[in-house]
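The passage that follows is intended for readers who have already worked through the single-chain material. We present the inputs for a multi-component assembly, then the predicted structure in tokenized form, and finally a short commentary. You are encouraged to pause after the input and sketch how you expect the pieces to fit together before reading on.
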Amino acid sequence: MTIHLIALIVCISTSILAQLTFKGYYIYRKFYLLCSAISFFILTIPFTYLAVRGFGIGRVYVAAALIYVLAPLGARVIFKESISQRHWLAMILIVCGVAIYNLPQIPL
Amino acid sequence: MTDVKPQTRTVLLLTLVIINIILQLINASLIKLASIHQDDRLMNLMLIFMFVMILGFVRLMVWGAIHKRFPVSTAYPITALFFPCLLILAWLYGEHISLIQIAGASLVVAGVVILLWRPAHESLEKSELL
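Having made your guess, compare it with the prediction:
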């Protein structure tokens, strides 16, 4: 289970880095940013596979929803994009949704 | 993009995101299939990875078109519309989907709806142009 959890963390991290470096490429037009984005993107595939082996696509891809929270946060820090109060509320809901999805099963 | 109407920009954004979601679902299916047949030859696994990579590059090109025109903080969260489709896909593959999973996915979708909702006084042109 541990290796699958590590794989999940790595696949989420590399996805965020791929998004941010790709955005950076479109702003700064630096070739190394494009190469970094492609590398991060390629790295995501085997780690997603490893995570899916342990958790299934439902849990892995829902956990990957954290990217929707972390990528805008990264964009705010790096590219100075603004995040409104509404965006914050939405991101809190997404985090709660991911947490609830992964709650242990309660017999009805 | 300054001469394009806000409605046209919204349609363009949604079209690009829907294409992205379909490609993402195909990729998720391929990875799931690979994990089901994990005892198969390494060659098969590599072929699936390669196909996922090719589809991923197509997604990257679509993302390029999105990034060129819209900020990450607006465009990226919209792809959370992928989750209701994912729930169905996971169920089709025999994964356990209960009320807890539906509630969790619904909260994610609610977050997306709030992200998409834009008050009338907010100008799409001013806030979204890079």
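Commentary: Confidence is low (pLDDT under 50) at residues 123-130 of chain B. The longest helix of chain B spans residues 6-36. How closely did your sketch match?
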